[in-house]
UniProtKB/TrEMBL annotation:
Protein name: Uncharacterized protein
Amino acid sequence: MLGERHESRFETGIRLTYGKLDNGLVELGFSSELTELTFQGHPLFLEPSKKIFKVMIELDGAPYELLGFIILLNLGITMTGFHDDDEEDKAVTVFARGRWDEKLKKMNRFEF
C-alpha cells in the first residue's frame, strides 16, 4: 500500500512490510524457496499444493479471494499460487490484524 516500506531478503525468500503510520511490521511474506516453512506441523511448500491448500482452507473456515490472493482472515494468512498450481508464484504471507479490513467489501468468498 502507498507509503509503506518494504524490505526484501532475497537470499532467504522473506519480504517484510512496515506500516506507514507507526512503521511497525504489518506483513511478513515467504516465497516457495523457504521450503522449511510450516503451519501447525504442515510443510506449506513441500506438500502437494492442492492438499495443503485444502488443509488451510478448512483450518480457516471462511476464506476470501481478491486479485488472485486467498485471504484467510481467521488465520491471518494469505496464499497465492496454491489454488491454481502455479509453482513459480507460490507465496504465503502472515499479516497484522486489520490489514485487509478496508478491502473486505471488494473480496469474494472463496469456494472450491
